Amino acid sequence: MLTGQKIGDLRTKAGLTQEQLADKLYVTRAMVSKWERDICQPDYGMVEKIAGILSVSPDEIMSRSDAVLNELYSFLSDIDSNDLLKDLNEFLSTLKSRDRSVFIRRYYYLEDISTIAENYNITESNVRTVLMRTRKKFKKYLKGMIS
Hints:
- The protein has two domains: 3-62, lambda repressor-like DNA-binding domains (434 Repressor (Amino-terminal Domain), Orthogonal Bundle), CATH 1.10.260.40; 65-146, Orthogonal Bundle (Arc Repressor Mutant, subunit A).
- The chain has nine helices and no strands.
- The chain has helices spanning 3-13, 18-25, 29-36, 44-54, 64-76, 84-92, 97-107, 113-120, 124-146.
- One of its GO terms (molecular function) is sigma factor activity.
- This is HTH cro/C1-type domain-containing protein.
- It holds the Pfam family Sigma70_r4_2.
- It comes from Ruminococcus flavefaciens 007c.
């Protein structure tokens, strides 16, 4: 069963409308609808909030590792690379040490953003920014190699 379908089924069992769930999560009803139709995926922090509201374990909705890997795969879906691991290693060697370590801790060791932030004495927002910028750089790097 897809993540969105699980959210929809659990929400219905809990007797909540999309609007009611959205209000509890401080998001729009349209966002809940997109999750339920698997147009986009909530991050794991949001999955934990959804699970709390619906009185289930977060793993009933999505495993932590699936959430982290979805974050990485979502931007690679349109990349066609025959040797992605080799390309990734070459790309990582071009990064500053901290950015490389943050990327590896998140996507190889599947560490929480809060843990990474604590280890590097930076804010969670800063970790998210580093990861977003690194993913964009990686995508650009791959597109340059394929062209």
